[in-house]
Amino acid sequence: MEKKKAAVPLVCHGHSRPVVDLFYSPVTPDGYFLISASKDSNPMLRNGETGDWIGTFEGHKGAVWSCCLDTNALRAASGSADFSAKVWDALTGDELHSFEHKHIVRACAFSKDTHLLLTGGMEKILRVYDLNKPDVAPKELDKSPGSVRTVAWLHNDQTILSSCTDTGGVRLWDVRSEKIVQTLETKGPVTSAEVSQDGRFITTADGSSVKFWDANHFGLVKSYDMSFTVESASLEPKSGSKFIAGGEDMWVHVFDFLTGEEITCNKGHHGPVHCVRFAPGGESYASGSEDGTIRIWQLSPANADAEEAVDTNGKPKAGVEEIACKVEGFQIAKEGKAEE
User: Which positions ≥6 away from 62 have C-beta within 8 Å?
Assistant: First the structure.
């Protein structure tokens, strides 16, 4: 009888300190890309499929806590303990803008239309910079109840999502009114908040559980208690049938979205896993760890039911919408847009 082979990840070296954030670009004409943030102060850009190093963005003088790429993967942004957020040319590595803050910047995110950069951090203020007018003072949303840990855009840049380092819950802000319009309650501080590729789900990790929220009506769709302290989670973007989670036990876990049953447990990191993210096509996922490495794992067909999820034309049979409809009592707007 043939033994089941253990998953062998692509191991990406290069960082000299812990990797604390990862971000995949959407698929572009040149493929897709992976950027990493590390306490070594040097964000790195890689080929998202192979993990091959492309370049390092040099200029920060403190730990880099957050990183992201714009929709076209032409610009990168990073938030740092040196009290700055920087925007970079992702093709040349040149620094385009440096936005000074009064304290550590923990989070940053490009708007979907790529014109705005959102930042947050220890100041308890969300700032929105207009990248077309970088010298103009940013819009400030200053009613955050705590130090900002994560930020994201949703509803076609009409809503901002944020979580705090020292208090539970996820806050949703209306950009026009600059006010909190909804709070998604969690037991502990949310260390990871991800908006799904199609904008329908918000995936959160709060130390003890992974939760999935309807991004349009804000209801709780699923909540799974973890057997380990979980720091990060990500939903498979194509079928929505799996999710991954990582944390203090140093392993990367793959779960069934509908049942919460663990499918795979990937061992290999030598320190807590600070961030996990699915590639935009869902065929692989990356993990960043205290050990300074990034590992890219394949979602093998044997574990992912890939054969069953694809029809004879190679098209997915069931998308996230079909998966969502299987959840009893769960309603979701067909257009995936915020209701007026």
Answer: 41, 80, 81, 82, 83, 104
pLDDT of residue 283: 96
Q: What is the CA radius of gyration of the chain?
A: 19
Give the C-alpha separation, 277 to 76, whole Å: 17
- Could you give the 3-state DSSP secondary structure of residue 312? coil
Residues of the chain with pLDDT under 70: 1-6, 300-340
CA–CA distance, 159 with 186 (Å, rounded to integer): 20
Which CATH number is 202's domain given? Answer: 2.130.10.10
Q: Is 50 inside a domain boundary? A: yes
Give 316-327 pLDDT, tens digit per residue: 444 444 444 434
First to last CA, the chain: 59
The predicted-structure confidence for 245-293, as pLDDT tens digits, reads as follows 999 999 999 999 999 999 999 999 999 999 999 999 999 999 999 999 9
Q: Note the pLDDT of residue 5.
A: 53
Per the CB < 8 A criterion, the answer to whether 232 and 272 are in contact is: no
Q: Would you say residue 136 lies in a domain? A: yes
The pair of structure tokens assigned to 46 is 């890689």
d(CA 211, CA 206): 8
Instruction: Find out whether 324 and 332 touch, Cβ atoms under 8 Å.
Output: yes
State residue 321 phi and psi, 5-degree precision.
-65, -45
- Residue 100 CA to its chain's centroid (Å): 24
3-state class (DSSP) for residue 5: coil
Distance between CA atoms of residues 35 and 318, nearest Å = 30
pLDDT at 126: 98
Cα 187 to Cα 84, 105, 155, 205, distances in angstroms: 31, 24, 26, 10
For the chain, what is the domain count? 1
Assigned domain for 97 exists? yes
- Contact at 8 Å (CB) between 12 and 53? yes
Q: Is residue 324 part of a domain?
A: no
Minimal CA–CA distance to 65: which of 124, 122, 4?
122
Cα separation, 265 vs 135, whole angstroms = 48
For residue 25, the enclosing domain spans 10-298
